[in-house]
Design brief:
Radius of gyration: 16 Å
Number of helices: 3
Largest sheet: 6 strands, mixed
CATH topology of the largest domain: Rieske Iron-sulfur Protein
CATH superfamily of the largest domain: Rieske [2Fe-2S] iron-sulphur domain
Order of helices and strands: HHEHEEEEEEEE
Structural class: alpha+beta
Number of domains: 2
CATH architecture of the largest domain: 3-layer Sandwich
Strand content: 25-35%
Bound molecules: FE2/S2 (inorganic) cluster
Number of strands: 9
Shape: globular
Mean pLDDT: 80
Amino acid sequence: MDPSVRALVADLCGEDVLASGESTQQAMRPAPRRLPVAQAVARCSASRVVPALLEGQEVALCFLADGSTVTVPDQCPHDGGLLSDGFMEGDTLVCGRHGWEFDARTGQCSHRSGLCIPTQVASAGLAEGSGPVDS
Ligand code: FES
């Protein structure tokens, strides 16, 4: 990164927010607004992913093609990107940072065999889950 840009960002933010290696886009980006899952479910449509809160935890709420909803932790196991910044391709959740793909129903990652993020069916109440993250 150009040092003058880095200095400008540091001036604007009051500190060198890029020192940790975060990209400019991440460092400058405000945290997403998160609705409780129950409210988010009522407001969104199929084939979308949005940031939400579930019992105080930041989750990505995935709206599947059939209209059902699933939550996953809102942190990609690859490099910590917000999964809610990604997008849905059918029932596949695609991380917006580097494109890793996860089956939103099972949590299975298509880029690394054996890697599975926990999923939880989200509706009026929460029920099913899948296995823990296996890195
Ligand atoms: S952080 Fe999600 S694919 Fe890299």
